[in-house]
Amino acid sequence: MTDNRIENLNIVSCTRLITPEELKRALPVSERAAAAVISGRDTVKNILQRRDKRLFAVIGPCSIHDPVAAMDYGQRLKQLAAHVEQTLYLVMRVYFEKPRSTIGWKGLINDPQMNGSFNIEEGLHIARRLLLDLSELGLPLATEALDPISPQYIQDLIAWSAIGARTTESQTHREMSSGLSCAVGFKNGTDGGLGVAINALKSVTHPHNFLGIDPRGQVSIVSTAGNRYGHIVLRGGNGKANYDSVSIATCEKELAKAGVCPYIAVDCSHENSSKDPALQPLVAENVCNQILEGNQSIIGLMIESNINFGNQPIPDNIADLQYGVSVTDGCIDWETTERCILDMHEKLQTLQ
């Protein structure tokens, strides 16, 4: 019995949402897509355990707002991936949820029409359909696990997940990550400190019990086994980069001291590129050079890339959006992306 005098005082409405089971029944996984997911997860995990000596690169738009452009990008990435597969394992960045410091567009799942209508059920359908289509291409896919409920709807199609700098310290996200089926990269804090990410790595390997939902949407006690494939992602912070060799060495020492996964991925965006997307290839080049010089701890990198350069505000008339241009953080264009990856491939071939 609800007493409206003392509860839900700021709740406008509650709308029943499709359950994960219902969505998956409407949009099932084909054998081809499942094979791509399994292969992607296994490859990333093998890279993390150094059974596979390649570098994995999570690369793609800062956020997805146009499924047509996303498929265009995915088809290009698939061709590039085949060309560099001896040295680099390309994982497409497919981010549907965006954390906001204050307010703003929170991603395709939350507001697929980009007009404040917040048709989350439509967003879940669009997101899952896109993940299925990209998986059918044979692409491994990555996303940011932000909302603690949405993984039940889409994580069966994800090969690698990120926990962002704003949420790495969150107990909710550490517990959730302990139950994810894929490898998880925890970003260092927004202040550039390593402590919150290292604590997250300690937490994620352990079993947890917390409130969540089951496949039928029923609120449940979720018990996890722990995730052995957590690792750190360096993205800079507090106006400073942390991808240079000194920062990498410092991180190596801190990881060893804490007894957690000793391997490092570098995010070429954010403070590591001074928030200038055009500088991302220089960060990638530096990372590549460190590997050529003998670094053994760097196993991955992240690049924000789209069909066209930069970013754009969301216009009142959505039809006025520029094709293949980010509506969140700025990205490098496809030509720059291709050149960056091919240059890395050529250099890394000398280690074969």
Instruction: Estimate the strand proportion.
Output: 5-15%
| Highest-level CATH class | Alpha Beta
- Got a strand count? 10
Could you give the order of strands across the largest sheet? Answer: 1-2-3-4-5-8-9-10
CATH second-level architecture? Alpha-Beta Barrel
CATH topology: the name is TIM Barrel
Overall radius of gyration: 20 Å
Would you identify the regions where 5 or more consecutive residues have pLDDT less than 50? none
SS field, number of helical segments:
10
Name of the CATH superfamily: Aldolase class I
What is the distance, rounded to the nearest whole angstrom, between the alpha carbons of the first and last residues? 68 Å
Please tell me about this protein's structure.
- There is one protein chain.
- The protein is of the alpha/beta class and 352 residues long.
- It has one domain (20-351): Aldolase class I (TIM Barrel, Alpha-Beta Barrel), CATH 3.20.20.
- The protein contains 10 helices and 10 strands.
- Strands 1-2-3-4-5-8-9-10 form an 8-stranded parallel barrel, surrounded by 7 helices. A two-stranded antiparallel sheet has the order 6-7.
- Helix 6 (171-177) links the parallel strand 4 (160-163) and strand 5 (183-187).
- The longest helix has 18 residues, at 31-48.
- The protein is globular.
- It starts with 19 loop residues before the first helix and ends with a helix.
Question: Which descriptors would you attach to this protein?
Answer:
single chain; 352 residues; 14% strand; 35% helix; globular; eight-stranded parallel barrel; TIM Barrel; alpha/beta
